[in-house]
Every structure is written in C-alpha cells, then in structure tokens.
Amino acid sequence: APLVSLRGVAKRYATGTLALDGIDLAVRQGDFLALLGPSGCGKSTLLRIMAGLAAPSAGAIDWAAGEGRGDVGFVFQEPTLMPWATVLRNVTLPLELAGMKRAEAEDRAAEWLARVELGGFEHAYPRALSGGMKMRVSIARALVTRPRLLLLDEPFAALDEITRFRLNNDLLKLWQDERFTVVFVTHSVFESVFLAERIVVMAPRPGRIAQSLEVTAPAR
Ligand code: ADP
Ligand code: ADP
Description:
Layout: E1 4-12, E2 18-27, E3 32-36, H1 43-51, E4 58-63, E5 72-75, H2 87-97, H3 102-115, H4 131-143, E6 149-153, H5 161-178, E7 181-186, H6 189-195, E8 198-203, E9 208-214
Parallel strand pairs: 3-7, 3-8, 5-6, 6-7
Antiparallel strand pairs: 1-2, 1-4, 8-9
The structure holds adenosine-5'-diphosphate (2 copies).
C-alpha cells in the first residue's frame, strides 16, 4: 500500500482560481518523487495539501495506517530559521517540541548537522551562514525527527548553480542511505532527472497531472 494517496484532489482558492483539478497520486514508501511543472501549475498547492497546511476543496488524502500529517518534514525555498537561535538550537527545537530531553535532542541534532556537513557550526547563528549552509540547516531540521515523508518546495531555486549541484548530490546521498520518502517540487528538468525515481509532470489551467514517468537516473 502507498504511504499516502490523493484521490480526485481539487483546490479552488477564495479568489476563484482553480489551482488543482482531479489529482490522483500515490506516493510509495521510500519513493523519490519529483513534481515538475511550470510556475503556476499548482505544485506548491499540492505540496501544502500533502503537508496538511491547506485543505483540498474536493477529494481525499489517505495515509497508510499509523502515518499522519504530523509525520511530515517540510523544506521551503527560503530557509525559515530562527535568527535569534544557534544552528544547533534551530535543529533541536522540533525534537524538544516532540518531548525529547534537551541533552538527547542536542546529540541527535549534532549528528544530523554533521551529516549535512555542518559539523563545527553548531554554535553559529544563521546570519553567519551562506545560503547553501542555511539550506543544509533546514534539511537537517526537517530530517531530525525522522519524518516518514519529506516535502521540498523548490528548495535550491534561489542558490547559485554550483551550490545547487552540491546540495542535489548531498540530498541524493542522504536519501540513498536513509530511504525516507521524498516529494520534491521543481521546475528544473535537470534536477528531476538527476534526483527522482519518478517524475510527475504537471500542467497548468487547471493544475492536472499530465504525465508520470519512471526514471533510472544515471547518477545512481
Ligand atoms: P506553482 O507552485 O506550480 O507555481 P501554486 O500552487 O503556487 O503553483 O499556484 C497555483 C495557482 O494558484 C496559481 O494560479 C496561483 O496564482 C494560485 N494561488 C496560489 N496560492 C494562492 C492563494 N493563496 N490564493 C489565491 N490563489 C493562489
Ligand atoms: P555550501 O554549498 O555549503 O553553501 P559555500 O560555497 O557557501 O558552500 O561555502 C563553502 C564552505 O566555506 C562551507 O562549507 C564552509 O565550510 C565555508 N564557509 C562559507 N561561509 C562561511 C561562514 N560564514 N563562516 C565560516 N565558514 C564559511
């Protein structure tokens, strides 16, 4: 059974815009799925609905038994780090909110910071970090609670090409090691082909799934 499936999901905003119409999508456990499409085709809307941040106007979302919206990690294009808190504290917070003791949370957070190549930056503040490094903190923060589903909304779009390429490589390696389930929104064909096992191509007006392709990426 898929981890999460959407059946006939539609979204009409209060403005009247029909952002999604008749979306049927099943995300399998351990899948790396890219949602590819031009600006305005409803990718972000679909991701927010999967995260439970927006409600569909029609249709249903079914989670495999034991899974729920609380078990989702989200990475946005703008790393939304708390500027007054250290890198370590930014990553421990979701664990502490989940009830973990501070010392254990710090160990766990430090481990994830090392995995995203930020060992030694625990006590730095976000403003001291480059865009790529802030994105790495965001990824560590999203993964530290070990969510069953990781959602990324054009995470690397604002970064320079070299940083972007490095982050793509590192994300792919993390996924190969951990096999968490990923839905990655992008308008880059290159990124989709490089990263994903399955590419779901969306078309605008209204947002629909135009094509679903299985990929054997040359990188793996
Ligand atoms: P994408 O992520 O593919 O660029 P979005 O999901 O952001 O697409 O947007 C899909 C459509 O819904 C667009 O026409 C956009 O203008 C519209 N839209 C997105 N968010 C809102 C909102 N909060 N209120 C009204 N319309 C919105
Ligand atoms: P990344 O792809 O990790 O963002 P950058 O090109 O931003 O890479 O930085 C390359 C390396 O330079 C980083 O991994 C880090 O070791 C170092 N670095 C960048 N910015 C800073 C900073 N503000 N303070 C200390 N070291 C930095």
